[in-house]
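On clarity, I found the account of how folds are encoded harder to follow than it need be. For illustration, here is how one protein appears when written out as sequence plus structure tokens:

:::
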Amino acid sequence: MKRVHKLTFYHPKLERISHCLPEGFVVGGFIRDRLLGIRKEEVDLDITLPFNPEKVSSCISKELNTNPVKMEREKPVFSFFLPGFRLDISAMEGKSIEEDLLKRDFTINAMAFDVRELFLPFNDDVEIIDPSGGFEDLQKGIVRPVTDEALKADPVRVLRGIRIKVSLDFHYAPSFLDLAREASKLLPSSPVERIREELLKMSKENSFYLCLRDMDLSGALFEVFKELKGIEEIPPSGLHQFDLKEHTLKCVEYLEREVLPSSEEVLGDYSGVLSRELFRGFTEGRCLKFVALYHDVGKPLTVKEVEGKLTFYGHDKVGAEIAREAFLRLSFGKRAARLAEVVIRNHLRPFFLYDLYLKGRLTDRAVYRFLRSCGDYAFHTLLLSIADFSATSDEMRKGVRDFVSFVKQVVAFYRERMENLKPLLSGKEIMEIKGIEAGPLVGRIKEKLLELQVTGKVRSREEAVKFVKGYSYEEGGKS
């Protein structure tokens, strides 16, 4: 037992539910963070009880006027979510709090204090229960499993340990990586919802790329992202200075460290698309980190050697399909899967446009078709291309400013030509002019007309009518 000062705190929601908690223990990350002096915007409390939590959960639900979400982690957990406040309630494992703590993941998470000490007036210290030496490991900055069996007992703890180590800038106990390599083999049989939860927490930080590198060291990378298996076998080739695994990890790093933080400078007001939520707490900007991880996933399946050089024709299309299925498998949802599919399918096109630009052969039509194909995800695709460009070689990285300047021109094209684009003719008017019924042909004519408007070849309603009248059924163009 240790008495620790300045660990308790007052919160009005806790005061409201104090009568619901006649006994129990505060455990886990709250204690760790308070001891480290970390103050988070959201209060996150984990309380374990020496009895079934159902009755307490009902009481808290009534007082806070919200229903809990029942989650299956290592054990059933009742989670309450309110703005700036999260509370997890679960049953103690074992006959005592010490026995419960010794079944937990890491020593720095295996500390507890009596929940009643939260509610004592003018109390400035608490008695810490610490059977595994977590307090000392916290002072030394060590992530140590409570026992040698802790990671195998729950392989998702490997991901949690990596996340904690990276976010706190700690180091692993000497045994961690060896234990993690064995436990990681069991990750494919772990609940995908729990894996997703850890991945989402990793991506929330600005050090997701470091987590990925530690996942690689621990053997977890290809167990979690199984579709990536094979990228480690693709050597440097052509413009690529690095093997494919290193290029992929560098791409995520540059996206996270440089591209996303400067997105407003590159995209202007359009950078707001990155803040759109795909589901609670998971923004399109965070999703783009996973897209960067999967952007070249099609290369191992399309690699061929032609005259001593490696080619990957079609890897963008193949990779788009693989990534879409992977995002669904990881429970990121259909919208995230669609984002990944569109961006990866189009991720090479900014480079083709840039090559045309450097040769003085870039046309408005080519830029329009790229932006139109990407739709809602054009800006995401452009940002990924900057990271991809930087991660190709040290030499190309030196020229990334010129590439960014080009990307800004593409964004300006959208702003000036496409943001407020309205068709000169409606679908109904097109049908009347051509004397046709509703169908795919109307859509093709309308789409072609928009392209001609953007490129300045049709500027008035009269010119639009003339174009429609001359549109060829057989060739899909003007007669």
User: Anything to note?
Assistant: The first helix runs from residue 12 to 17. Residues 475-479 have pLDDT under 50 and may be disordered.
